[in-house]
Description:
8-stranded mixed β-sheet, 10 strands, about 30% strand
Amino acid sequence: MPAKRLKKFLDENLVAYTVLEHPAAFTSQETAAAAHVRGRNFAKTVMATVGGELAMVVLPAHRKLYLERLRKVTGRWDVELATERQFKDAFPDCEVGAMPPFGQLYGMKVYADSELAAADSITFNAGTHDEAIQMAYLDFRRLVGPIEADLSYHLPAHA
Protein backbone atom coordinates (compact mmCIF):
# COMPACT_ATOMS: atom_id res chain seq x y z
CA MET A 1 0.00 0.00 0.00
CA PRO A 2 1.27 3.52 -0.74
CA ALA A 3 2.75 5.51 2.14
CA LYS A 4 -0.13 6.20 4.53
CA ARG A 5 0.67 9.90 4.81
CA LEU A 6 0.62 10.28 1.02
CA LYS A 7 -2.56 8.26 0.48
CA LYS A 8 -4.40 10.22 3.19
CA PHE A 9 -3.23 13.54 1.70
CA LEU A 10 -4.32 12.61 -1.84
CA ASP A 11 -7.68 11.27 -0.64
CA GLU A 12 -8.37 14.34 1.53
CA ASN A 13 -7.66 16.57 -1.46
CA LEU A 14 -9.95 14.51 -3.71
CA VAL A 15 -7.22 13.80 -6.24
CA ALA A 16 -7.77 11.19 -8.93
CA TYR A 17 -4.79 8.82 -8.96
CA THR A 18 -3.94 5.27 -9.89
CA VAL A 19 -1.75 2.93 -7.86
CA LEU A 20 0.46 0.87 -10.15
CA GLU A 21 1.80 -2.33 -8.63
CA HIS A 22 4.97 -3.65 -10.27
CA PRO A 23 7.86 -6.01 -9.62
CA ALA A 24 10.34 -4.55 -7.13
CA ALA A 25 12.71 -2.08 -8.78
CA PHE A 26 15.36 0.12 -7.25
CA THR A 27 16.40 2.68 -9.88
CA SER A 28 14.08 5.18 -11.51
CA GLN A 29 14.68 3.76 -14.99
CA GLU A 30 13.97 0.20 -13.76
CA THR A 31 10.86 1.38 -11.93
CA ALA A 32 9.56 3.21 -14.99
CA ALA A 33 10.02 0.08 -17.09
CA ALA A 34 8.43 -2.17 -14.43
CA ALA A 35 5.43 0.17 -14.18
CA HIS A 36 5.19 0.42 -17.99
CA VAL A 37 5.74 4.19 -17.98
CA ARG A 38 8.06 6.17 -20.25
CA GLY A 39 11.16 7.46 -18.44
CA ARG A 40 10.23 11.05 -19.28
CA ASN A 41 6.94 10.59 -17.39
CA PHE A 42 8.42 8.84 -14.36
CA ALA A 43 9.54 11.29 -11.69
CA LYS A 44 12.50 10.39 -9.54
CA THR A 45 13.11 12.15 -6.26
CA VAL A 46 16.68 13.29 -5.77
CA MET A 47 17.59 14.50 -2.31
CA ALA A 48 19.73 17.59 -1.86
CA THR A 49 20.74 19.90 0.93
CA VAL A 50 20.18 23.61 0.47
CA GLY A 51 21.78 25.65 3.21
CA GLY A 52 22.00 22.51 5.33
CA GLU A 53 18.26 21.76 4.97
CA LEU A 54 16.91 18.75 3.09
CA ALA A 55 15.10 19.48 -0.16
CA MET A 56 13.55 17.31 -2.86
CA VAL A 57 14.43 17.72 -6.51
CA VAL A 58 12.01 15.96 -8.85
CA LEU A 59 13.40 14.97 -12.24
CA PRO A 60 12.32 12.77 -15.14
CA ALA A 61 13.90 9.31 -14.73
CA HIS A 62 16.05 9.73 -17.84
CA ARG A 63 17.69 12.98 -16.68
CA LYS A 64 20.37 13.94 -14.14
CA LEU A 65 20.45 16.85 -11.71
CA TYR A 66 22.55 19.82 -12.76
CA LEU A 67 23.70 21.14 -9.36
CA GLU A 68 24.82 24.51 -10.73
CA ARG A 69 21.30 25.21 -11.98
CA LEU A 70 19.82 24.31 -8.59
CA ARG A 71 22.34 26.65 -6.94
CA LYS A 72 21.24 29.44 -9.28
CA VAL A 73 17.53 28.81 -8.64
CA THR A 74 17.98 28.76 -4.86
CA GLY A 75 20.42 31.67 -4.84
CA ARG A 76 22.70 29.60 -2.60
CA TRP A 77 26.10 28.09 -3.21
CA ASP A 78 25.87 25.62 -0.30
CA VAL A 79 23.78 23.16 -2.35
CA GLU A 80 24.90 19.53 -2.48
CA LEU A 81 23.48 16.09 -3.11
CA ALA A 82 22.31 14.57 0.16
CA THR A 83 23.68 11.25 1.32
CA GLU A 84 21.36 8.41 2.25
CA ARG A 85 22.56 8.82 5.82
CA GLN A 86 21.33 12.44 5.79
CA PHE A 87 17.81 11.66 4.57
CA LYS A 88 16.88 8.07 5.44
CA ASP A 89 15.24 8.98 8.77
CA ALA A 90 13.22 11.85 7.25
CA PHE A 91 10.74 9.40 5.66
CA PRO A 92 9.61 7.01 8.40
CA ASP A 93 6.68 5.67 6.35
CA CYS A 94 8.74 4.97 3.20
CA GLU A 95 11.32 2.49 2.05
CA VAL A 96 14.71 4.19 1.58
CA GLY A 97 14.93 5.53 -1.95
CA ALA A 98 11.20 5.18 -2.66
CA MET A 99 9.95 8.45 -1.20
CA PRO A 100 7.21 10.27 -3.11
CA PRO A 101 7.89 13.85 -4.29
CA PHE A 102 5.60 15.48 -1.73
CA GLY A 103 8.07 17.44 0.34
CA GLN A 104 5.46 19.34 2.32
CA LEU A 105 4.45 16.03 3.94
CA TYR A 106 8.00 15.79 5.30
CA GLY A 107 8.77 19.46 5.97
CA MET A 108 10.91 20.24 2.94
CA LYS A 109 10.86 22.32 -0.24
CA VAL A 110 10.33 20.73 -3.62
CA TYR A 111 12.01 21.74 -6.86
CA ALA A 112 10.66 20.19 -10.07
CA ASP A 113 12.32 20.03 -13.45
CA SER A 114 10.50 21.97 -16.15
CA GLU A 115 10.37 18.89 -18.40
CA LEU A 116 7.97 17.26 -15.93
CA ALA A 117 5.83 20.40 -15.87
CA ALA A 118 5.21 19.96 -19.60
CA ALA A 119 3.72 16.47 -19.12
CA ASP A 120 0.04 15.68 -18.71
CA SER A 121 0.68 13.11 -16.01
CA ILE A 122 3.36 12.22 -13.52
CA THR A 123 4.21 8.80 -12.09
CA PHE A 124 6.38 8.37 -8.99
CA ASN A 125 7.31 5.95 -6.21
CA ALA A 126 4.53 5.58 -3.68
CA GLY A 127 6.81 4.96 -0.71
CA THR A 128 7.70 1.39 -1.66
CA HIS A 129 9.87 -0.23 -4.32
CA ASP A 130 6.93 -2.14 -5.80
CA GLU A 131 4.22 0.53 -6.12
CA ALA A 132 3.95 3.77 -8.02
CA ILE A 133 1.27 6.43 -8.22
CA GLN A 134 0.14 8.07 -11.43
CA MET A 135 -1.77 11.36 -11.39
CA ALA A 136 -2.24 14.54 -13.41
CA TYR A 137 0.74 16.88 -13.28
CA LEU A 138 -1.62 19.82 -12.72
CA ASP A 139 -2.87 18.15 -9.52
CA PHE A 140 0.73 17.57 -8.42
CA ARG A 141 1.53 21.24 -9.08
CA ARG A 142 -1.57 22.39 -7.18
CA LEU A 143 -0.88 20.21 -4.14
CA VAL A 144 2.90 20.48 -3.92
CA GLY A 145 3.56 23.95 -5.32
CA PRO A 146 7.04 22.99 -6.53
CA ILE A 147 9.55 25.58 -7.67
CA GLU A 148 9.74 24.71 -11.37
CA ALA A 149 12.95 25.32 -13.31
CA ASP A 150 15.29 23.76 -15.84
CA LEU A 151 17.34 21.67 -13.39
CA SER A 152 18.61 18.70 -15.36
CA TYR A 153 20.38 17.32 -18.39
CA HIS A 154 20.02 14.09 -20.37
CA LEU A 155 21.92 11.08 -19.20
CA PRO A 156 24.29 9.81 -21.91
CA ALA A 157 23.03 6.85 -23.91
CA HIS A 158 24.67 3.49 -23.20
CA ALA A 159 27.11 2.37 -25.86
